[in-house]
Amino acid sequence: MRNVCSSFATGPRQYDGTVYEFRTYYLKPSKMNEFLENTKKNIHLRTAHSELVGYWSVEFGGRMNKVFHIWKYDNFAHRTQVRKALAKDKEWQEQYLIPNLALIDIQESEITYLVPWCKLEKPPKEGIYELATFQMKPGGPALWGDSFKRAVHAHINRGYTKLVGVFHAEYGVLNRVHVLWWNESADSRAAGRHQSHEDPRVVAAVRESVNFLESQQNMLLIPMSFSPLK
């Protein structure tokens, strides 16, 4: 039996039930360091239950004192099993969850799939990450998927930046796509962006894609020492 999965654009259908949960925590300004220290000390209690893809603090883009992390699950049933196991894990509850809840203002969760034409890539070395979020017009990937794919490939084919993954929202705000990029530094990211703006092939691909775009935003992410993606 095939897994229930997400289709993106008019290309090959992705018969893969793997889901990626995006979690964003908005922390109390005076408690950021305390939260990160406790997380560093006890994250192993959480990763004993499921795979952590990456964990970052947000340097630029939106509200300050914010952390962003991605968790991978085989399917929705796997996530349910993990959440049930965590609810029974007293060590996790007492050493991490209960102390940290008092340090958090807001928690957000979004469920995504990797798009079928993309696999999760690991950067060659440590660097910084950019999460670019695109709110597309209603109509779904069948309407804007091909042009979006061309715009992404125009950037990576010219070597202006390195693609880590492209994720399509399944639960949360619909018609939303997240692109996770890697660069050696914020300055190298800026240099690549300036060069891409002068490349007619990139400009043409982006110009086509923006016909289906409603809004976009981005965040500069700094990987934590315990993050698998550095």
UniProtKB/TrEMBL annotation:
It comes from the Eukaryota. InterPro entries: Dimeric_a/b-barrel, NIPSNAP, NipSnap_domain. One of its GO terms (biological process) is mitophagy. GO terms for cellular component: mitochondrion. Residues 20-119, 129-228 form the NIPSNAP domain. Belongs to the NipSnap family. This is Protein NipSnap homolog 3A isoform X2.
